[in-house]
Amino acid sequence: MTVKTMAEFMAEGKQPEILFWVGSAGSYDDRAKKITKAFVKLLNEANIDFAVLGTEESCTGDAAKRAGNEFLFQMQAVTNIEVLNAYEIKKIVTACPHSFNTLKNEYPSLGGNYEVLHHTQYLQQLIKEGRFKITNNSFKGKRITFHDPCYLGRANEVFEAPRELLKELGVNLVEMRRSKRTALCCGAGGAQMFKEPEKGDKDVNVLRTEDALQTNPDIIATGCPYCNTMMTDGVKFKEKEADIEVLDVAELLANGK
Amino acid sequence: MAYLPNILFAIALVIGIGYFVKNVRKLIRNIKLGKDIDVSDNKPQRLKNMINIALGQSKMVRRPIAGILHVIVYVGFIIINIEVLEIIIDGLFGTHRVFSSIGSLYGVLIGSFEILAVLVLISVIVFWIRRNVIKLKRFWNSEMTSWPKNDANYILYFEMVLMTLFLVMNATDVSFQEMNSGNVISQYIAPWFSGMSENSVHIIERTAWWLHILGILVFLNYLYFSKHLHILLAFPNTYYASVKPKGQMDNLESVTKEVMLMMDPNADPFAAPEEGATDDDVPEKFGASDVTDLSWTQLLSAYTCTECGRCTSSCPANLTGKKLSPRKIMMDTRDRLEEVGKNIDANKGEFKDDGKQLLGDYITKEELWACTTCNACVEECPVSISPLSIIMDMRRYLVMEQSAAPTELNNMMTNIENNGAPWPYNQMDRLNWKDE
């Protein structure tokens, strides 16, 4: 696995093609780290010149902003923008829809203007340009349902990129009753990931997992580290972890290779 | 004495429209209590949104049954109102069916009004059944008791009565029936009155005519007090709604100023305000605790909400039994705004502190913290309301003015501050995954 930092590129006097924004979950969360590595594997395979910020990366501030702490968010944003602008970053790819949304929509008015892509969009772009080929057919014919992350789907209207990639794998894509625009949240957004839910009669991730289970899937695919955690927990709650895997689209593409 | 009906009609018209205008003024005054916001951008896109979403009902039909029924009532409402123009002219000048002189086109017009009236009547009855017999869940949430529940039914009764009066009016209009053009529906109702004397039929016709127009005037004035205001406000609301991606939350400018000051090594935090600095430069309150902290477009949205509950029926928090209901956020905002407006009216144009506010007295913290910011409510709203923006502004107040976030969130924020991640990991370990 080849991973170079921006600092290393800088030292060599080179500029990478893209910056891979790993995000906090992708950097520290054990489950999300697997997604990070799967995506890196794909980038390596496609011979993409990419960099990460490494220890110079800091939380985008999404969770702080949505928890209501605009101060902390803007402090994070301004700090990150300083780093990104110093490295003259033009194009950012991330596997986290929360980072994606924040970098793409909320950084520009603070001075951070970049082309920002979700990793599924980027991979689709690579395939279209003929720079990356899907050879993995280990999921051919498998029943897979895709859970739309809110910050990728509704928030930014990216519905097709992840689905197109799944179709490339030859899977049997089955849609949940609530999907795309009407997809139900996994329950983690808006800083819910970091707190106990309010009193209710069910957890959101359980309800969403029930949506997924209705499609009788072999695999629940998603494109967000938080959704991944929530759906994995939901599948465990339903005691289905022996039958159903929860995987990121990048993992599906990278696995079996 | 011959002019008595004309005079009475003119008086009714002046009172009806006058009172309506008075309330519209109040409505505008209340909306303007909100903070100013720049919505002068993207005019073509805004216009397009209004045409598609309000005029074209594009989001209504995403739920096909309610959507199509609603389109019928909506089209009926607009088209049948052409008839009101004739009624007003007849009423003022003592003419009878003044437009009938245009010939066969009149028959086509009235005929289509009659068909629409029946369709509206059927649709409204189906709406009533959905609410009261089938009892669709979203019409029976906890915020839909008392006035909101009655309001919805009153509107349906109003429409049923108005449509019936229109058809009866036509059926008992002997000269209109004799024309035998345009009475596509009323010709089947006319025989019900055939046993009556000519005079009685005429009295029924006049009564139906008067009740119809008076009913319309009463309904017009009912709007201000009802969720039915959406028939007017859907248009400005879809125009002024956000044209940004749904995920994009505004960056508070007042915060940006302070953050830039903190980040600027050359800034002198103890510097005296620049010359010419006005009160406007004093840091405003962060976030919203009351309606006057919200923007005027958010207040407009509160008046626009017709309490259909599509938002609440798609809200993950509400679906899992939490107290949060996006519809209630809008209803509370309107109720509080009305309260503030009445307070201003009672105190000669000045708001007198009533010890109440939107936060706490109407909307609880528990509701606010249950939101996942998933935008399902925003996506669902057929008139582009964002309950989420109000929730977020109130969270901002809780956190930035009161430091009243749940403990776990405070921990998360402390972690971000100290380690640049929401978890307590060392920033220096951020790339460790590479070698694991």
Write the layout of secondary structure elements.
The complex is a heterodimer of chains A (257) and B (436).
Chain A: E1 4-5, H1 6-11, E2 18-21, H2 23-28, H3 30-45, E3 50-52, H4 62-66, H5 70-86, E4 91-94, H6 97-106, E5 115-118, H7 119-128, E6 143-146, H8 160-168, E7 172-173, H9 204-213, E8 219-222, H10 225-237, E9 245-248, H11 249-254
Parallel strand pairs in A: 1-3, 2-3, 2-4, 4-5, 6-7, 6-8, 8-9
Chain B: H1 4-31, H2 43-55, H3 64-93, H4 104-132, H5 146-171, H6 174-179, H7 186-189, H8 198-222, H9 230-240, H10 253-263, H11 296-304, H12 310-314, H13 316-319, H14 326-346, H15 358-361, H16 365-369, H17 376-380, H18 387-401, H19 407-419
Contiguous helical run count of chain A: 11
Mean pLDDT of chain A: 95
* Number of discrete domains of chain B: 2
Our measurement of the CA-to-CA distance between the termini of chain A, rounded to an integer number of angstroms, reads: 14 Å
Rg of chain B over CA atoms, rounded to whole Å, is 28 Å
**N→C terminal distance of chain B:** 99 Å
Weakly predicted, low-confidence segments of chain B: none
3D shape of chain A: globular
Level of helix content of chain A?
A: 40-55%
